Amino acid sequence: ANYGVSPKKFLDADPKPFKEKYGIQHAFILQAGRIEPAKNQAMLCWALRKTNIPIVLIGSSDNWPSYGELCKEISGNKLTIIDHIPQDLLASAYAASSVHILPSWCETCGLVSLEAALNNTPVIGSTFGHELEYLKDDALYIDPTDPDTILQAITQALEEGKHHTRVRRLKNRILSELNWEKTTDSTIELYNKVIR
Q: What pTM did the predictor assign?
């Protein structure tokens, strides 16, 4: 069975609560997830270092405090790091963001990418790991070793915006296939096949 996300928690959230709480009113790139080398945020920061594109990282750097500091050194005041936030505020952050990127070295799925997509947020995944299996042709992809591909994908996603066909297709596929209800049904069906 595939992983899934909860449309009840993340679908079409209101961007205002996040914008108001953190004072971020302009376009920004978002990455939600632990701040650590495996998630490759430093490469994201490096790729955008010569731009004026703001980055928001939502996640704990408790396990790798020096890595969070490295990201700050690279990006300076263009980077906002927010520790853990409640799911309703995370949903609002997805809705407020212009692009969600997960340039990880290895992801099974990247549930955060699916959650972001439920808010019509363009998603960028990594060619490493299993994101292709979930995101298919409905996302842009980067090579996590190559900052140029990161910058190119972000530029393209910003130009295409939240109403691009790819963005709508991913959202619709999540609603029909990659949600917890569908995952539960598939898991029960699999168990029933095994015990028969």
A: 0.91
